[in-house]
Amino acid sequence: MTRRSCAIYATGIVCAHLLIVGIALVVAQVFQTMIHSRLKKEITLTEKSQMFESWKNPPPPVYMEYYFFNVTNSEVFLAGGKAAVKQIGPYTYREYRPRENVTFLENGTKLYALNPKTFVFVPEKSAGDPEVDIIRTVNIPFVAIMNELNSYSFILRTLVSIYMNSLGIEMFMSRTVHEVLWGFKDPLLSKVHSMKPDVDEYFGLMWKKNGTHEGEFVFHTGEENYMDYGKIDTWNGLREMSWWSSNRSNMINGTDGAVFHPLINRNELLYIFAADLCRSIHLAYVKDVEVKGIQAYRFAPPNDVLMSPKENPTNAGFCVPAGDCLGTGLLKVSVCREGAPIVVSFPHFYQADPMYINAIDGLSPNKEEHETYLDLQPTTGVPIRACKRAQLNIILKRVQGFPKTKYITETIFPIMFVNETATIDDDSASQMRTLLLIVTLVSNFPLLIVGLGIILLLVLVVLFCRNRQKKNEVKRIDFTEAFHSFTTVKDDTAYTQVSDKPDEPSETPASQPMRNGSYIAMSPVEAQKC
After folding, report:
1. Membrane-spanning residues where (predicted)?
2. What percent of the chain has pLDDT over 90?
3. Do 67 and 90 meet the contact criterion of CB atoms below 8 Å apart?
């Protein structure tokens, strides 16, 4: 057997083995199953897990951008006209949120933690100085007192109204951004505090929230089931809430938004419990995106999350008392936040009923600036980019006994909205890309084997064709040489013709005997002579 034949046979054997093994591995999904099993074991909130440290001290910077609605015609609104507002901001703060008092429970299957948040002003990302810029907005303590007295007698409400007028307290106030956000000593609350010490005399939208936490959380580590990774077990000792009007609405579902289980698919709904909203919300897949070279799935709250119970009956449980419902796009959270009738929506009433948008001049909702979304890397479940956007509103309506509300039209009045953003940092993004490259290579290793087998198959075909061509050329050369030898012999040989004439005597040497008949002689041409 020639060397060429050996090479062909060896290539064929290797090719066959590669194709058989590769196709078998692809069909059985051995490597993909192995990688998925590894991810399920590694992505947990245990001390040995690489994810634990990033969960405990999140590396991506989180920024809180606060935008305020400055009221430009408060007198017109009090006279029964349409309010007009102008958006100002952002006033940006860097948010730090380390996990503290981390304690493992129940053999490492659960985890207790606090999540205090600290805010630091970032001037270079802000539109102005919050301690200088003055805004005109709704006097929330005024509305809170008025709302609290709504169930009392008309006489008491009238007396309180007269007293408030004597203090010069109006429905709208002018304060600096810093005061409205982080607190100021309110004259009305100070009077109430003197009578009821449990009432704080300071007011601010973020009063006592700098350096504090939103409650005590117990999380599942994912040790028992990877699908439970990061899910909330209890919040402030509760597995369900009590202030909504249905069991479904009171459920505490999902994670706190910091982590999600690995191997996310496009068809599932992801749940987040938002303590500031006092409820769980779900997110649905929107589209594929790319963030810093990392492929991700974008999830966002669908329209039905804040849809009116008339259109989505499952939201009836968020009407408190039962049957007292707002329209699409609004959620009344005053049931879990004592005081003013606070309503939450998306910024500029995005996805809300148009009647709320048209009730105020100066609003222009759009998806790009006002949608809440979360970009997740589906293999690991790690958030790559997040934008949480929520607007704070207050219900303004007529209250008997308070003459200043006599002409106003009931309105969901916007106060401010926040844009909470976080994007994976460059170092973490680089590590993520490396990890995903390794996962991709290992998962697709059977395909690489099949590909190599196909390449060798092509090489085998080429070698076989060239071998056949070589054999044909050898045969052709042998035939040509044989034919050439034959023609050469023919050309170099002559035959003398047989004479038809009778024999004539000729003189011959005496020594040569006489021969009878015709004599045929074959001799070289050069020897013939006439």
Report:
1. 7-31, 435-465
2. 54
3. yes
Distance CA 192, CA 373 (A): 41
Name 26's Cβ contacts closer than 8 Å, sequence gap at least 6. Answer: 446, 447, 450
Residue given tokens 């245990």 in the structure block: 46
The predicted pLDDT at position 26 comes to 64
pLDDT, tens digit (0-9, with 9 covering 90-100), for 312-328: 999 999 998 888 889 99
Sign of CA pseudo-dihedral 496, 497, 503, 505: negative
Q: Identify whether residues 37 and 87 lie together within a single domain.
A: no
Query: Do the beta carbons of residue 32 and residue 443 sit within 8 Å?
Result: yes
Dihedral (C-alpha) 162, 165, 167, 169: value to the nearest 10 degrees? Answer: 130
- Is the pLDDT at 66 greater than 70, yes or no? yes
Measure the CA angle with vertex 266, ends 262 and 272; round to 5°. Answer: 60
- Cα–Cα separations (whole angstroms), residue 243 to 217, 240, 249, 250, 282: 19, 10, 9, 7, 19
Give domain status of residue 476, yes or no.
no
Q: Are residues 204 and 293 in the same domain?
A: yes
User: Looking at the structure, do residues 329 and 443 belong to the same domain, yes or no?
Assistant: no
> What φ, ψ does residue 525 adopt, rounded to 5°?
-60, -40
Which residues, at least 6 apart from 68, have a Cβ–Cβ distance to it below 8 Å? Answer: 87, 88, 89, 91, 135, 137, 177, 180, 415, 416
Banded model confidence at residue 81, pLDDT cuts 50, 70, 90: very high
Look-up of token digits 């270079």: 124
Helix axes 140-148, 187-195, angle to 10 degrees: 40
Q: Which tokens sit at 524?
A: 């070289």
Tell me the whole-structure pTM to 2 decimals.
Answer: 0.80
Domain region containing 451:
1-41+439-456
31 falls in which pLDDT band (50, 70, 90)? low
Residues 258 and 320 in one domain: yes
- If one counts the domains in the chain, the total is 2
Considering the domain architecture, whether residues 30 and 48 belong to the same structural domain is answered as: no
Residue 412: in which H helix or E strand, if any? Answer: strand 411-423
On the CB side of 435, CA atoms within 13 Å amount to: 20
Beta pairing partners, 394: 342, 413
35 with 56, same domain: the answer is: no
Q: Which amino acid is at 522?
A: M
Q: What is the DSSP string of 47-90?
A: TTSHHHHHHHS--S-EEEEEEEEEES-HHHHHTT--EEEEEEEE
CA–CA separation, 460 vs 457, rounded Å?
A: 5
What is the Rg, in whole angstroms, of the alpha carbon atoms belonging to the chain? 45
- Give Cβ neighbours of residue 105 (< 8 Å, ≥ 6 apart): 111, 112, 218
Shared-domain flag, residues 444 and 384: no
Confidence of residue 47 (pLDDT cuts 50, 70, 90): low
CA dist 247 and 519 (Å) reads 133
First to last CA, the chain: 60
